Amino acid sequence: MPPDVYGDRAARAEELGYDSVWMSETQHDPFVGLTAAALKTERVAVRTGLAVVFARNPMTTAMLANDLQLVSRGRFALGIGSQLQTHITKRFSMPWSKPAPRMREYILALRAIWKCFATDGRIRFRGEFYRHTVMSPFFNPGPNPYGEPPILVAGVGPMMTQLAGELADGFLAHIISTRRLLEGVTIPALRAAREGAGKSMDGFELHATPIVATGNTEEELRAAVRQAKESIAYYASIPSYAPVLELEGLGGLKDELYRLAGAGRAAEMVDAIDDTILETFAIVGEPKEAAAKIWERFGGLATSIAFFQAGDLPPEALQPLHEELRHLVRSDLP
After folding, report:
1. 334 pLDDT tier (thresholds 50, 70, 90)
2. What average pLDDT is seen over the chain?
3. Within 10 A of 247 (CB to CB), how many other CB atoms are there?
4. Which residues contact 212 (CB under 8 A, 6 or more apart)?
5. Would you say residue 48 has pLDDT above 90?
6. pLDDT score of 315 more than 90
7. Nearest-CA neighbor of 286 among 201, 203, 225?
């Protein structure tokens, strides 16, 4: 979604009572889109979900995040992820190695840079992957009155999950995450990492972004289901996400999709996603039904939920889903 359109969409979402707006790094730069959103809103949180940080050095990301925290008056959160090696090296032409250790150092570098801004001090960050050792007053933006933005780390595998629990302020669950994965694997790993770092889960965010295929007409729902199957087929064909499929008893699917992807047979990849697989990894149904399924899958686990929307429905069209989900959340509160 272009940044100018996203700003208007965010303003409408705020009017309808949404708590946050998110933008991922796909066809557009999320920092630009969220700047537009921040300037057109007053209340909603604005968050990258996610920004591809290995496409930038830590100083660049630190400056962008610091400015968005200023523009939004403290409503920004920096959601970050590593992306895949092929995209980093061949699309962004940036180095790739040891993604979890590199991400660890990246986070430490971000916080060292923000500390430098906050204290108007010198920076002496030297790591295996990044070095930041120069900061003159002319280039230092100075203390941010709203403080540092929270850092949310995206992951699927054990190393990135552990890193998120240890160093970050929250975790971004992948869009094909299931309740079985979160309850049996992800949350125990996050809790263990927090405990190992001498931290509790209090205040730690677990954000879910399920694929939601919904619509108010049969035509809208049919189109959304097709797009949801395309998303599942794409992610399920990536080897690094194989453990999610295996956990759901779908280990054979990844081999078939990988073979079809290699042969360029995209239409057959989508056809391989039957209704059972679709319902395993996506939320499907008319808006109120979809809300019930979202809460059944993520209620009691996620601290916040956004929609990876299959289709392009405006906020008004999703309002029945939003209202029903709010009702379910309130009904479940003690």
Report:
1. low
2. 95
3. 14
4. 224, 228, 282, 283, 290, 294, 307, 308, 309, 310, 321
5. yes
6. no
7. 225
- 163 alpha-carbon distance from chain centroid: 16
Lookup: tokens for 171: 């975790």
Asked if 236 and 253 count as a contact pair (C-beta separation under 8 A), the reply is yes
Amino acid at 110: L
Nearest alpha-carbon partner for 147 in 169, 165, 163, 131: 169
Domains of the chain: 3-216+289-321 (3.20.20.30)
- Measured CA to CA, the distance from residue 304 to residue 186 in angstroms comes to 16
- Phi, psi at 174, each rounded to 5°: -65, 155
Alpha helices in 168-201 (DSSP H): 179-181, 187-196
Whether pTM exceeds 0.70: yes
Length of the chain: 334
User: Hey, what's the torsion of the CAs at 62, 65, 68, 70, to 10 degrees?
Assistant: -60
